[in-house]
Write a structure and sequence with these properties.
This protein is of the alpha/beta class. It has one domain: NAD(P)-binding Rossmann-like Domain (Rossmann fold), CATH 3.40.50. Helix content is 29%, strand content 24%. It has an 8-stranded mixed beta sheet. Strands 7-9 form a two-stranded parallel sheet. Strand 1, helix 1 and strand 2 form a beta-alpha-beta unit. 41% of the residues are buried.
Length: 205
């Protein structure tokens, strides 16, 4: 299986890429502004601009799945256009919580203050949900670095309860979807750390 990571220089890919490299059946292509400087062997590195549909289509040739490591509605629309041209259906996108105003008390008060409102607008999920792609949008709570790999995966329509999660756990969720342990197709999934429910804010704030 061929996997394309858009925005491969980010903090989640830093954890995710080594996990994917352990899967011998996967071949990785890294796409981003300065990916040639990234310290990974046995991967294809393509420097490019995710706002350029032509560059994206070129990078998407022979790919099976796209992981997009950032959340921007306009760029998501460009990625969707490129996927249609390249004939790819499967995408996983890193996103944010509160796109539906789903964050529950007591965490919602702190989260709304930090994010500037109770609903996050102009996010990739809006474009994905209007598309015909097999998407997984990750509504991630507040991230920190750590070794915990467990997560709660909460479907759309349920209250968002958790205040924190490790990047390692996010990487595990992505890996689980890529290798078929999970199959969150046409799904917007809230992700948080077990035990962080009903906190007023993350422990690291």
């Amino acid at each position: 299986m061929n996997v394309l990571i858009i925005g491969a220089g980010g903090q989640i890919p830093e954890v995710l890429i080594p996990l994917l490299q352990e899967q011998k059946e996967l071949k990785l292509t890294l796409f981003g502004r300065n990916v040639t400087s990234l310290p990974y062997d046995n991967v294809t590195k393509i420097s490019g601009d995710a706002k350029d549909v032509t560059e994206l289509v070129s990078a998407m040739q022979n790919q099976d799945i796209v992981y997009m490591n950032f959340d921007n509605k306009k760029i998501t629309e460009v990625v969707i256009e490129a996927m249609h041209t390249a004939g790819i259906k499967r995408i996983i996108q890193a996103g944010v919580l509160s796109v539906y105003g789903e964050v529950a008390e007591p965490f919602s008060k702190w989260n709304s203050r930090m994010m500037g409102g109770s609903v996050a607008h102009n996010r990739g999920v809006e474009a994905l949900e209007a598309s015909d792609l097999d998407y997984t949008y990750m509504r991630m709570t507040w991230l920190y670095n750590g070794d915990r790999s467990d997560y709660v995966a909460s479907p759309k329509g349920e209250p968002f309860l958790g205040a924190q999660i490790t990047r390692r756990a996010i990487a595990q969720f992505i890996l689980d979807n890529i290798v078929g342990k999970r199959n969150d197709i046409k799904a917007s999934i809230g992700l948080w750390e077990p035990g962080s429910e009903n906190k007023a804010k993350p422990d690291f704030y």
